[in-house]
Amino acid sequence: MIKIICIGKLKEEYLKNLVNDYKTRINKYHKLEIIELKDSNITEEKKEILKVLNKEDYIISLCIEGKELNTIELKNKINNLLINGKSNITFIIGGSDGLDNEIKNISNDLISFSKLTFPHGLFRGILLEQIYRVFKILNNENYHK
């Protein structure tokens, strides 16, 4: 299973539609769960993340200081994890103050999608699109470039 733990709930209908569309698409390839946690301060968010985090999963925190990957590198990472029996992958999207260092320290990887700052709802859609793209590539299916 792929889990996405994210701080905050989507309010905008267009973002809900975007996320639901990609969730449906991804579920054709791999089970996906999105866990939304209450937006709070970074210490409270850490506590809430730790409550739902399975430390047996392969944990990828998404943060600006992480390593930037291109789509093929992300595809290779996910493919290698799945081949090596790590079928439970958890992505963590922090709140507006980022992620507490304790969360980053227990993560297996830190990944950055850009040095730019994105709205959280939009970034959730970008992450889901990239996960969908990864599965399309892994299944040798056409997908627009």
Quaternary status of these chains?
single chain
Q: CATH first level: which class? A: Alpha Beta
Distance between the termini: 26 Å
Large-scale geometry: globular
Provide the residue-averaged pLDDT.
95
Provide the domain count.
Answer: 1
Low-confidence stretches are none
| Number of distinct helices | 5
Structure report:
By secondary structure, the protein is an alpha/beta fold. The chain is 44% helix and 22% strand. It is built from 5 helices and 5 strands. It has helices at 13-27, 42-52, 71-83, 101-106, 120-138; strands at residues 2-7, 32-37, 58-68, 89-93, 109-112. A 5-stranded parallel β-sheet has the order 2-1-4-3-5. β3, α3 and β4 form a beta-alpha-beta unit. The radius of gyration is 14 Å and the shape is globular. It starts with a strand and ends in a 7-residue tail after the last helix.
Index terms:
145 residues, alpha/beta, Alpha/beta knot, five-stranded parallel sheet, 5 helices, 22% strand
Please give a quick description of this structure.
The protein is built from 5 helices and 5 strands. With 145 residues, the protein is of the alpha/beta class. It has one domain (2-138): SPOUT methyltransferase, trefoil knot domain (Alpha/beta knot).
